[in-house]
Fold Thymidylate synthase.
Amino acid sequence: MVSGEEAYLSLCNYILKNGNKKEDRTNTGTISVFGHQMRFDLNKGFPLLTTKKVPFRLVASELLWFIKGDTNIRYLLENNNNIWNEWAFERWVKSADYTGPDMSDFGNRAQKDPAFKELYITQMEYFKEKILTDESFAKLYGELGAVYGKQWRKWETTRGETIDQLKEVIASIRNNPDSRRHIVSAWNPEDVPHMALPPCHTLFQFYIADGKLSCQLYQRSADVFLGVPFNIASYALLTHLIAHECGLEVGEFVHTLGDAHIYSNHIAQVKTQLSREVKSQPQLFLNKEKKSIFDFELEDFELKNYNPHPAIKAPIAV
């Protein structure tokens, strides 16, 4: 079986050759396949793609945001991470409080209309500044609803109790390593209507063998060019963190995809990426003085020998 970055590139090739043309909620259009699996041996290096630069700092700050149980983009903006801005921004421009220029369908319009793009950038910069400087505005419009952090750390039951799934799965790994119930779910059907974006990476499970911790993720919807490289790195990092806390080595990250798609406005970028040679994977180093996953901050991660090809820009579909 092809593994590592070659497995990712093989998926890209397969979608381009065999994908089904489909419409989607963003009105962008995709080519997609259903059901695919990739494997990454975490002992062979950290699986951050090398055929294009993937910003590790953004991957790490987003994962820490999930781990903290946070659902407000203010923490992300404080760490110069803009990857969730559009979903919060969309809530604001659709609200009765918004009085600026029409921002309907801003994602598609900004790609086609340079004059509108300037308006959009101005409004987005104003929005970000308000989130960072106005606490009441941030509480109202920086909030994304019951997204990943909420489900991982404060899943609400029908009895009004909360479940810290992340703490419980770590305890389960420590105390009952052979269990088949080392599972965390982000898909809470009751909360889905109240999320800015229902979880794409919906469920993950851990497996321990030979003193090594492996993780399998089921991802219902996979934006293969923009999102999947982040998801691979994020869950690899999560596996390293939990293995460190539990005194285990790392094993594999297994990535199982439902609807794996390339957006129609990413096809040229994918072809550029496929024309590049794979380079050696970088190495990840954790601050060994930190014992708990919940104590880590950005400065506790070090990535060495990451020498990727240049980044490839592409628009995000909202």
Observations:
- The domain at 4-70+162-304 is CATH 3.30.572.10 (Thymidylate Synthase; Chain A).
- The beta strands are 20-22, 30-41, 155-156, 162-163, 183-185, 201-209, 212-223, 249-263, 283-286, 301-304.
